[in-house]
Amino acid sequence: MTETKFCFSQDESAQHFTALPGCAAWGALQPGTGRFAAASPLARVHGRSGSDDHEPAFALTAATEPAHTLCTVAPQADAAPSQTVFAVHDGSGRFIGRITQGRSPLGIRQAWRIEDADRQCSAVAYKGNIRGWVAYWACSPFWALMALVYLLNGDLHPSRSLWSKPHRARWRMRAGGGPRKIALDFQNGRYRADAEALDANLIHAQAVLYGA
Q: How far apart are CA 95 and CA 91, in angstroms?
């Protein structure tokens, strides 16, 4: 397995570039797992102006100038009511796959599926692991008390981590009828991907959608 590591950033330092026409600088993908380095992004993310916040549409371009489009991502209008489906095309406009956001079989967790164009390869992940959700709900009765402590100390904007739901996700895929292998792993704001499992553009598009 050839493993790659990267992160997705939407902070100010990741938005210092000229966006494509009709788009806004939205963030960047950075190789490695360290602090974001604006000078060496893996790809730049261009959000299309006017896109609905719940149905993002964006393009990924290489960091070199002039901008070379790696892929575009846009929602499909014919998706089932319980799902949001995003079509991914490469820089030449060729359809390379789809990413589906829905729910787990029991409807408890958010689910994400990555599929290639022929639906021969797919990877599925559920938002948050069981241990994380148990800890989240076990601590929920203390949120009001913690929020009060923040307010009494003059903090009118408590840290988002106070309310943050579990975000750990592992996209698993079955290869050759054997055990499922991990194609993409997200933890603590960082991604680890099997570069041989799926098209890199599909992996990067999923990372942006999950982190948006």
A: 10
Digit-coded pLDDT (tens) for 53-94? 556 799 999 988 778 999 999 998 877 788 899 999 999 999
> Is pLDDT above 70 for 126?
yes
Closest CA to 97 of 105, 107, 85: 85
Phi and psi dihedrals of 132, rounded to 5? -65, -40
Tell me the per-residue pLDDT of 129-152, one tens digit each, with 9 for 90 and over: 656 555 555 556 666 666 666 666
d(CA 186, CA 5): 10
CB 17 within 8 A of CB 25: yes
Half-sphere exposure of 124 (CA within 13 A, CB side): 11
What six digits make up the tokens of 87? 């079509």
Phi then psi for residue 106, to 5 deg, are: -90, 0
DSSP letters spanning 17-28: SPPPTTEEEEEE
